[in-house]
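Propose amino acids for all 453 sites.
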């Protein structure tokens, strides 16, 4: 059998079989228990007639059953189809039909939606109910799906300071939004976080002010990864030594590299190409392209998109950046997020980092909105820290004092709550563009709880 991610579990059970592997609410499993449950689920898929290449989808929140599917589906060469729980029914229907999904695992939140989808998807024959209530008669109960292994499923405590202290968490993998939330958690002042050895972050740009603030609170190693699903997913890595040297502030070059995404991992090649497709000189901004054994073979049933993304063995990421003379990669923006205003290129991440340097800013997104005079006008949407009341004009003045005037947002929207995000925690700028575009009207912006300052 070709080695899959489940091989890591095989190794863990051999070395640490009786150690705790999973905490899911009140339920606690050892590695041995997890391994036994994964084997049971794998055997059930065999019994259902699923072979190599057949697709199993999961539409569920984060729980132990989800982890079992994550490890068990690929164990014998089947394909895991992770569904975004925020998608509409019609979007999910398209994905299931397009992928030829045969089995769908659902929890309590999505059991009714899953049964509706089965009626609309010709290949979908089995719904596995991994909830906590009585299983519907037309669904396969989770207890049977894992060969009589039972589980008490519950919502995890999350990544708050209380959870770190209670579970003596040693390693955490967080996106910047989660790190910002952790630094503003009221419980953090009194929590014992001494167990935490390292934090790995990625998925979206990390503002330097947030990184330094978080590192001052959490005395542990910090590491960063940059990548994408198409690269399975890691492309570059910035080590804890890079972070330590940068935080020391006695080496300006090392401090500047904190703004980078690190250097390519072993086996992966990274180039930055100019607008003619040639490798750019160090410091020259262009599109980031990636090559390596981790890069995908293509998009499922999408030959045109595959041909556009994979050129001569290189994956065109759609990200813009530059490499320095030591091979550190600096990601400056997404191609589609770069703003062209009055003929000038503005990288949204530069403006976001500037706004983040204001002590009252918790979240920020900068994006372009069509403008008849300038082509695009720079807009920023900001969420403030609790108990602060900075105005839009104060934020514009803060930005104006630090970067060129043409980069200053024309409009700063201060909103309540949180910015719209994907399931991976990335801010959905397309939603913000749509809400504040000239054609959107007032309704879309009102949904973002705009506060006029």
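Proposal:
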């Amino acid at each position: 059998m070709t080695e899959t991610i489940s091989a890591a579990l095989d190794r863990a059970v051999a070395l640490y079989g009786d150690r705790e592997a999973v905490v899911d609410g009140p339920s606690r499993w050892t590695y041995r228990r997890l391994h036994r449950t994964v084997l049971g689920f794998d055997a059930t898929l065999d019994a259902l007639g699923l072979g190599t290449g057949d697709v199993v989808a999961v539409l569920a929140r984060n729980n132990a059953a989800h982890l079992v599917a994550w490890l068990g589906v690929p164990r014998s060469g089947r394909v895991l189809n992770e569904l975004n729980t925020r998608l509409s029914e019609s979007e999910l229907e398209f994905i299931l039909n397009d992928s030829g999904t045969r089995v769908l695992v659902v929890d309590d939140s999505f059991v009714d939606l899953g049964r509706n989808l089965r009626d609309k998807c010709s290949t979908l024959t089995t719904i596995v109910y991994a909830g906590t209530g009585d299983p519907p008669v037309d669904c396969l109960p989770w207890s049977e799906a894992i060969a009589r292994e039972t589980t008490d499923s519950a919502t995890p405590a999350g990544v708050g300071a209380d959870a770190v202290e209670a579970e003596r968490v040693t390693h955490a993998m967080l996106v910047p939004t989660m790190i910002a939330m952790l630094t503003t958690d009221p419980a953090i002042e009194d929590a014992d976080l001494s167990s935490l050895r390292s934090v790995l972050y990625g998925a979206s740009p990390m503002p330097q002010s947030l990184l330094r603030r978080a590192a001052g609170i959490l005395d542990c190693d910090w590491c960063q990864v940059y990548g994408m699903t198409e690269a399975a997913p890691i492309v570059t890595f910035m080590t804890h030594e890079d972070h330590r040297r940068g935080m020391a502030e006695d080496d300006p070059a090392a401090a500047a590299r904190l703004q980078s995404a690190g250097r390519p991992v072993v086996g992966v090649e990274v180039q930055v190409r100019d607008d003619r497709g040639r490798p750019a000189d160090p410091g020259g901004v262009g599109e980031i392209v990636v090559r390596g054994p981790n890069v995908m073979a293509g998009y499922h049933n999408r030959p045109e998109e595959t041909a556009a993304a994979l050129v001569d063995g290189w994956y065109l990421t759609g990200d813009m950046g530059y490499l320095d003379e030591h091979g550190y990669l600096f990601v400056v923006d997404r191609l589609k997020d770069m703003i062209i205003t009055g003929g000038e290129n503005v990288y949204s991440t530069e403006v976001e980092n500037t706004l983040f340097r204001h002590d009252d800013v918790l979240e920020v997104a900068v994006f372009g909105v069509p403008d008849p005079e300038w082509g695009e006008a720079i807009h920023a949407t900001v969420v403030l820290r609790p108990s602060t009341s900075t105005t839009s004009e104060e934020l514009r003045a803060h930005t104006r004092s630090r970067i060129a005037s043409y980069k200053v947002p024309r409009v700063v929207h201060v909103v309540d709550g949180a910015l719209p995000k994907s399931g991976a925690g990335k801010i959905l700028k397309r939603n913000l563009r749509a809400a504040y575009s000239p054609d959107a009207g007032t309704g879309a912006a009102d949904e973002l709880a705009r506060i006029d300052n």
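The longest strand covers residues 361-371. Residues 148-157, 443-453 have pLDDT under 50 and may be disordered.
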